[in-house]
Design goal:
The protein has 287 residues and is an alpha+beta fold. The structure holds zinc ion.
Length: 287
Amino acid sequence: MPELPEVETIRLDLDRLTKNLRITDLQLLDRRALQQTSARKFYQLKGKQIKQWDRIGKLMIVELASPQLFLLIHLKMTGQLIYRHNVDIIPGGHGLPDWHANLPNKYTIAYFSLSNGSQLFFNDMRRFAYLRVATKTELHQIKNNFGPDAISPDFSLPYWLSAVSLRKAPIKNILLNQKILAGIGNIYADEICFRARIKPTRKANKLTKQELTAIFRAIKQIMPLAIKHRGTTFSDYLDAHGQRGGFVKLLKVYGRAGKKCKRCQKGVIKKVKLGGRGTHFCPFCQI
Ligand SMILES: [Zn+2]
């Protein structure tokens, strides 16, 4: 699943490519992907202008005018956004063997025609991805379900310490809890714990202020670094230029079970299950 750095990479690309364009036409092919939105409400997007692409955590928010409405897009496991302009095809999100073939194709949920002659396709193979149309009031309510975004200034050290220091859950589960902190998923949670030298299985309320501060610093270092490298991709994810994210080369623990630790050169990266998620750490240099 794309996490904050991957969604941010796609957001930045689509903001640059489609800002100020108008939606001249749109087609909904699978209305089951609409969340708390009628097809009629969805078609109200026709004629509207894209003001900007925003994001909270892994949820993309397209601001439209006028009157103001918001299109929310969540890629979930296998969602993808494909921008096509003349012969240029720029996919973002999950890669499919035939992502570029015969658009719209059998994975297409909806597509938008834009005023520069381009088209934006929203595809999903596994059908967990969703679209929602929201008013400003509804958007406000939706955002209230999330903690601060990991790269926003709202996510501060005092907030982090007060939000987590009494919690009994393992620190990794805290990192994955979108109500506390938005944007982090399984890959980056493991990398953050590694950077902070803390075992992901330790309970948050047993960590010292110094250790919680180390986790906070690791979040604030890793997120911008991953965005700079256009995220992490494996076999199934592409950014909005159809490229694989460069952060995969910088992963220290995720996907390295059984290999020697790159930092201490002594430990062997261990993989355990935590809350049903594969969790990686170095038993030697993470305490
Ligand atoms: Zn180590």
